[in-house]
């Protein structure tokens, strides 16, 4: 049996970066992948001090953003990891930009120098490949018009991919050090020896309902649609736990408020909803009693967290026929924006989605607020009073009730009126194996497990309770940064 120096478990966002960087430095790399194809590199990627960010004149103070992220995590984190991301992410993104340009594509930076001040600060960290409109994602990495960007590059550097070959367990020696992995391939079990180290990055457990119910049952009430990558069933996390690793104490997921459910349905995983892209915009949002309950301009999952305190975990978005001007006025940055980036939803695309939701009975359209309330199944008197208060606040340019920014207030006066019950969609889990500053898994005593490195959303020590989505691409950005650093470090061992 040939001896492999580096084993990478997972050919997704982190796995591709780790495999490429290790192979670039001369290591022999085998990459195990559960699926017939890899998960690809997910957009958006957050970084500090990339070439594109510097060219745009965007400057972000490292300590300021790090302390904001610590606040988001309620200190259930390792702050040193944030600094490592801040100091190394620019190089990782520059490297990815080079690979994209070699394949004939560009990388887009979402600057926000002219962003209007807001109670919730936006950090302009996002980088997005500018794929053509007919992009299809299927393959080792991002597949565009038949080209596989990082997959082709990895193979050119000698990475050996084993598809349909999920990692089953980690191999340990007498001391407990991880020396490789056992996987189940099409022809049976195989053992991959890894003298330099094993990297676990199998994508978390968003597709494992039993683990979700056991570790974060409240998350099940937040979403009615999952866009998590198929096969992300916690394989890597479980293997690390069996090897003696410790897991985050706080269990967290990334869930965005962009799903419609029908007027006779409630939010939660028992309901299957449909994509409602405008949901993350600060429309008037009420509960099923027709009452406001939060600052609608809060980050995506803040609204969903607040919804858990409301009847049936369901929120109703209300807007009028002047919504196009409000979409412009709201000045939304990050992935929820409409227009403003070559890879983002256009207004025409959003209109098309909305029309489909109208046709399918999700969005209710009415000529009066009373009719709208009836169609949505909420009290007409309460909704009418809430709308009147909303219009008063808009006219005054101030929200004394919840403190929403002036530019994110909207009136509801121009018929027809629109409303939809909403929930969230699941992207991925964010809690994982506790790691140290070298990205090694640690045991309950905080001691490193030799040979075992964890990154992506299999790794922990970073997020808790919520996701700092005001730092665009934060999760993918730290995933690729740490994966690239791991690959280079293992190759140098």
List keywords for this structure.
elongated, 13 helices, 493 residues, 8-stranded mixed sheet, 20 strands, single chain, 7-stranded mixed sheet, alpha+beta
Largest sheet: 8 strands, mixed
pLDDT < 50 stretches = 135-147
Oligomer: single chain
Give the strand content. Answer: 15-25%
Structural class, by secondary structure, is: alpha+beta
Radius of gyration: 23 Å
Q: What is the 3D form?
A: elongated
Fraction of helical residues: 25-40%
Please report the total strand number as a whole number.
Answer: 20
Q: How confident overall, as mean pLDDT? A: 93
Figure out the total of helices: 13
- Distance linking N and C termini: 22 Å
Topology of this protein?
Elements: E1 4-9, H1 13-24, E2 29-32, E3 45-46, H2 51-55, H3 62-72, H4 79-102, E4 107-109, E5 126-129, E6 143-144, E7 147-148, H5 149-156, E8 160-162, E9 167-172, E10 178-185, E11 188-200, H6 209-215, E12 223-226, H7 235-242, E13 253-261, E14 274-275, E15 284-286, H8 300-307, E16 315-319, H9 323-329, H10 347-359, E17 364-366, H11 369-376, H12 380-396, E18 417-429, E19 440-442, E20 448-454, H13 474-491
Parallel strand pairs: 1-2, 1-11, 2-8, 11-20, 12-18
Antiparallel strand pairs: 3-5, 4-5, 6-7, 9-10, 10-11, 13-14, 13-18, 15-16, 16-18, 17-18, 19-20
Helix pairs in contact: 1-5, 1-13, 3-4, 4-13, 11-12
Any overview of this molecule?
This protein has 493 residues and is an alpha+beta fold. Helices cover 30% and strands 21% of the residues. Strands 1, 2, 8, 9, 10, 11, 19 and 20 form an 8-stranded mixed sheet that branches.
């Amino acid at each position: 049996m040939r001896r492999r120096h580096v084993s990478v478990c997972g050919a997704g966002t982190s796995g591709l970066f780790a495999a490429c960087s290790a192979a670039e430095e001369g290591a022999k790399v085998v990459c195990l992948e559960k699926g017939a194809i890899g998960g690809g590199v997910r957009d958006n990627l957050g970084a500090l001090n990339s070439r594109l960010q510097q060219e745009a004149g965007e400057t972000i103070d490292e300590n300021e953003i790090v302390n904001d992220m610590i606040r988001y995590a309620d200190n259930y984190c390792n702050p040193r990891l944030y600094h490592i991301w801040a100091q190394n992410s620019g190089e990782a993104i520059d490297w990815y930009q080079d690979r994209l340009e070699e394949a004939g594509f560009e990388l887009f930076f979402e600057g926000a120098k002219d962003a209007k001040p807001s109670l919730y600060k936006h950090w302009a960290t996002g980088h997005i490949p500018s794929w053509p409109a007919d992009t299809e994602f299927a393959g080792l990495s991002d597949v565009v018009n038949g080209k596989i960007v990082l997959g082709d590059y990895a193979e050119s550097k000698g990475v050996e991919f084993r598809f349909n070959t999920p990692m089953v367990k980690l191999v340990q020696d007498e001391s407990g050090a991880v020396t490789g992995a056992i996987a189940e391939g099409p022809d049976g079990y195989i053992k991959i020896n890894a003298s330099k180290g094993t990297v676990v990055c199998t994508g978390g457990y968003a597709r494992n309902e039993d683990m979700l119910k056991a570790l974060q049952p409240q998350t099940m009430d937040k979403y009615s649609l999952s866009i998590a990558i198929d096969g992300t069933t916690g394989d890597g996390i479980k293997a690390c736990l069996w090897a003696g690793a410790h897991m985050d104490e706080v269990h967290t997921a990334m869930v965005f408020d962009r799903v419609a459910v029908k007027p006779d349905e409630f939010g939660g995983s028992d309901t299957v909803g449909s994509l409602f892209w405008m949901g993350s915009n600060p429309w008037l949002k009420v509960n099923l009693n027709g009452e406001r309950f939060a600052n609608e301009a809060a980050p995506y999952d803040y609204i969903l967290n607040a919804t858990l305190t409301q009847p049936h975990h369901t929120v109703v978005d209300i807007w009028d026929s002047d919504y196009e001007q409000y979409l412009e006025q709201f000045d939304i940055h990050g992935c929820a924006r409409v227009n403003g980036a070559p890879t983002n939803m256009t207004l025409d695309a959003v209109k098309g989605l909305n029309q489909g939701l109208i046709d399918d009975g999700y969005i209710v359209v009415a000529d009066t607020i009373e009719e709208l309330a009836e169609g949505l199944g909420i009290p007409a008197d309460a909704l009418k009073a809430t709308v009147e208060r909303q219009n008063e606040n808009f006219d005054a340019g101030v929200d004394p009730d919840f403190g929403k920014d002036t530019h994110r207030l909207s009136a509801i006066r121009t018929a027809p009126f629109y409303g939809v019950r909403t929930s969230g969609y699941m992207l991925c889990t964010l809690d994982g194996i506790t790691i140290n500053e070298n990205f090694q898994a640690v045991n309950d005593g905080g001691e490193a497990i030799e040979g075992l490195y964890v990154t992506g959303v299999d790794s922990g020590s970073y997020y808790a309770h919520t996701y700092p989505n005001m730092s665009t691409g934060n999760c993918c950005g730290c995933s690729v940064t740490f994966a690239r650093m791991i690959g280079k470090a293992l190759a140098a061992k």
